[in-house]
Each structure stands twice: as structure tokens, then as C-alpha cells.
Design goal:
By secondary structure, the protein is mainly α. It is built from six helices and no strands. Helices cover about 80% and strands about 0% of the residues.
């Protein structure tokens, strides 16, 4: 895995963007641009860049969160779950035609669903395990997962136009 200096600077920028936009949307329940930013990083610069964006961005947000830092097991689950969105973005790029005028709303919603579940399933399980009682806490987290899936199903198709416009300039850095 060898990343060009320009890609490294973009990874840093997108990681910082995760922190800033998470801070800006902290009071909107389960509306998060994190998933899309990590997905876009994987789409534009490949799986390695997307995974690093997810790891670094979620570490920043979870460690310097205005509501307090996450417990270490929860932090690890958040970082791993967020980083999987970069893999989804890279896979989505490989499955879609680069010159496609309309990438398909259904495929973007499916990508949003996968990114959201890849994050929330491990995070919810670790949260329920840490803060007990396990089953009530796990079941209590399900409505929040659904809310996040709905918001991401709207965010991904709406914002993907920006990524598609960035690709001709940024895609050569892959």
C-alpha cells in the first residue's frame, strides 16, 4: 500500500471533515455524514484511503467528542465499523461504470444500508455488552439504527453527485 502525498493530504482533509461535520450535526439524532464521507473516500481514492479516513476520522470524533470520549472497546468498534465504509466505496466504484451518467439510486441506497449496518451492528453489540443489561440495551438501539439507515438512504443519493463531479479530477490519484 503506497499512497501518494496528494492522497495523504486528502485523507487528512476528509478525516478532519468527519470531525467538523460530526460536531455540526451532533444534535441531529442519527443524522451523520460520516458514512458518506468514508464511502466517498473509498470511491475516489481506493479501499486503503477509505479505510484510513474511517479509522482516523472516527478516532478524532470519538476521542475529542464534546460529550466525552468513548470507552476503549466502543472506540475500537466505532473505528472498525466506520472504516468498512471505505471498502464499500471502493467496491461500489469497481462495480459501477466510471462514465455512468446516473449511478443508480437503488445501488446507492444499498451502499448506504451496508455502510450503516457495518457500523451500527458492532457498535450496538459492544455498547450493550459494556453497559448492560445486554438484550434490552441491544433492542433499544434498533430504532436508532433504523433512523440512521433512513437518513443515509437520503444522504447518499443526494450527495453522490458531488463525488461523481470530483472523480475526473481526483480519480487519477487512485
Amino acid at each position: 500500500m503506497s499512497l501518494q502525498p496528494r492522497v495523504i493530504s486528502r485523507i487528512a482533509l476528509f478525516s478532519a471533515l468527519i470531525y467538523v461535520l460530526s460536531y455540526a450535526t451532533a444534535y441531529l439524532p442519527n443524522v451523520s455524514l460520516v458514512f458518506f464521507i468514508v464511502f466517498a473516500g473509498g470511491y475516489l481514492w481506493g479501499a486503503s484511503a477509505g479505510v484510513i479516513i474511517g479509522l482516523a476520522g472516527m478516532w478524532l470524533w470519538s476521542s475529542f467528542n464534546p460529550f466525552g470520549p468513548a470507552a476503549l472497546p466502543l472506540l475500537a468498534a466505532q473505528m472498525i465499523g466506520a472504516s468498512l465504509g471505505g471498502l464499500v466505496g471502493a467496491f461500489y466504484h469497481s462495480m459501477s461504470g466510471q462514465g455512468e451518467a446516473h449511478p443508480g439510486t437503488v445501488r446507492l441506497i444499498l451502499a448506504a444500508l451496508i455502510c450503516t449496518l457495518a457500523y451500527y451492528l458492532p457498535v450496538t453489540i459492544i455498547d450493550a455488552w459494556l453497559y448492560q443489561p445486554f438484550w434490552p440495551r441491544l433492542i433499544g438501539g434498533l430504532p436508532w439504527i433504523v433512523a440512521s439507515i433512513v437518513s443515509n438512504a437520503l444522504i447518499f443519493p443526494l450527495l453522490f453527485t458531488v463525488v461523481r463531479r470530483l472523480y475526473p479530477r481526483e480519480g487519477m490519484l487512485r
